[in-house]
Q: What sequence folds into this?
């Protein structure tokens, strides 16, 4: 080993759900390891601090979007951003995590040097000064989308005389009271924005090119709130969490196995609020439920806004943006003072950090996921990419727990390199799978940059939490694929098998 140890055993990138969760897990399950969290913003929260648009809320219930170790105590299980930030801040303070966070530090690059068994990470402070941090292990909790550059649908707004806003960069001083608003898009952001803006706006129109499957549910979980009254908080939380995980899994499998039955169910829920004569076509996508993520409508807020006449859903294709609004190809003009482009996100791999191995750039599209957590032939690196069919934090929890097990095993065995080893012979026999069996635009646009996923576990990013949790929590750390080696004194090496794979 080098005479000088690394600055930290683990460097965690991002202080959102994934990063704070990993910090908490390390405190509980790997207390003998030092760690630091670097966060480019000035607050914790990640997504929940970045997005400031009206009504921003979770589209998953907080009993599964919350951590397995920290009960969600709010009355509403579909929570707004301030409540989620309160939850995260309380965890950071009560578990003594905040002092480990370096705010205003953006990670630019990270190079793993096997001869030193450590990452050399370049971070940039807000004043532009660049610093070097070294760590044995790198944990990326940097999310899945580009914070700086949302998806641009290529619209030309040169003739439009109103205000154009993207939800990712919502202006604090935007006054939309008594204004006509057109929200372009039909995803979770649009479905959230429309009822929230309709409270003040003259009218809000959700303009969709293609409908999205929507399902309504109460924002409050009556069973959870009842259990919390009669049982200890942690027990009530565990029961509710178990219930909701099973319901999520059941609903997803029903949609895949009996799509027509699920379609009927979703339509009936909408009809119950909008009446028998509602425009069914505007709520019937050309794909099956869960071919894309369903949009949550808590307390029927979107449908209730439509009933009052303050909101509407319009299906059509945009011809151009004119002085007073949006001209559709049908010839109809949707008047607007404000246009909100809720057209989606742009995915980013590894937080757009320039990752390299011994100075050679890492192309993630040429590497396989290992247990949805690490990557083939890339030592001492873990990442969180949450579930598409369930809550993000479910994956964050099991990945954090697994990496804590890996860290402890490394310490016990005196090893400093943990590498998911994939030999050329083994890789040649792998049957590759579509990494995401989802047709969502933001997924399809990013397939060329995404890591590979096999049909067989563990070389895949799985979408079955119940299976993953069992394998990650109970499966052996030394499975014949994840190799543990030690660097030589002053002259560490990449295992011969890894050199061949590279």
A:
């Amino acid at each position: 080993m080098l005479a000088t140890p690394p600055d930290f055993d683990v460097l965690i990138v991002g202080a959102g759900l994934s990063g704070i969760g990993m910090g908490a897990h390390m405190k509980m399950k790997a207390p003998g390891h030092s760690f630091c969290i670097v966060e480019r913003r000035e607050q914790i929260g990640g997504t929940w601090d970045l997005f400031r648009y009206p009504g921003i809320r979770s589209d998953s219930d907080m009993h599964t979007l919350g951590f397995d170790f920290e009960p969600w105590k709010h009355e509403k299980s579909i929570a707004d951003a301030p409540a989620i930030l309160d939850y995260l801040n309380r965890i950071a303070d009560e578990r003594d995590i905040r002092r480990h966070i370096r705010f205003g530090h953006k990670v630019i690059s990270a190079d793993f040097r096997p001869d030193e068994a450590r990452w050399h990470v370049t971070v940039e402070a807000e004043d532009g000064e660049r610093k070097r941090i070294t760590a044995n292990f790198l944990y990326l909790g940097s999310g899945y989308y580009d914070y700086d550059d949302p998806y641009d649908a290529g619209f030309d707004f040169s003739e439009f005389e109103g205000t154009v806003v993207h939800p990712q960069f919502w202006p604090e001083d935007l006054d939309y009271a008594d204004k006509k608003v057109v929200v372009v898009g039909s995803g979770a952001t649009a479905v959230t924005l429309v009822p929230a803006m309709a409270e003040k706006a003259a009218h809000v129109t959700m303009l969709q090119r293609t409908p999205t499957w929507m399902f309504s549910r109460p924002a409050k979980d009556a069973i959870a709130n009842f259990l919390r009254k009669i049982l200890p908080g942690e027990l009530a939380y565990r029961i509710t969490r178990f219930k909701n995980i099973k319901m999520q899994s059941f609903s997803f499998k029903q949609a895949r196995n009996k799509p027509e039955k699920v379609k009927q169910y979703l339509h009936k829920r909408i009809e119950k609020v909008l009446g028998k004569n509602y425009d069914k076509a505007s709520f019937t996508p050309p794909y099956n439920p869960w071919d894309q993520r369903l949009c949550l409508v808590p307390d029927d807020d979107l449908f209730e806004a439509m009933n009052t006449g303050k909101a509407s859903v319009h299906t059509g294709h945009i011809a151009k943006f004119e002085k007073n609004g949006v001209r559709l190809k049908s010839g109809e003009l949707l008047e607007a003072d404000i246009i909100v482009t809720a057209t989606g996100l742009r995915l980013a791999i590894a937080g757009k950090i320039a990752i390299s191995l011994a100075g050679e750039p890492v192309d993630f599209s040429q590497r396989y996921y290992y247990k949805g957590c690490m990557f083939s032939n890339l030592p001492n690196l873990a990442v969180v990419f949450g579930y598409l069919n369930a809550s993000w934090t479910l994956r964050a929890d099991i990945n954090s727990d697994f990496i804590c097990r890996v860290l402890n095993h490394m310490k016990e065995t005196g090893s400093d390199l943990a590498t998911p080893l994939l030999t050329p012979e083994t890789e040649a026999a792998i049957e590759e799978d579509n990494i995401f069996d989802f047709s969502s635009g933001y997924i399809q646009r990013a397939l060329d940059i995404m890591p590979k996923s096999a049909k067989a576990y563990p070389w895949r990013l799985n979408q079955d939490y119940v299976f993953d949790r069992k394998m990650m929590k109970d499966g052996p750390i030394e499975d014949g694929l994840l190799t543990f080696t030690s660097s030589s004194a002053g002259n560490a090496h990449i295992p011969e098998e890894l050199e061949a794979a590279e």
User: Anything to note?
Assistant: Residues 158 and 321 are 8 Å apart (CA to CA). The longest helix spans residues 233-257. The domain at 163-222+258-341 is CATH 3.50.50.60 (FAD/NAD(P)-binding domain). The chain has two domains: 8-147+346-501, 163-222+258-341.
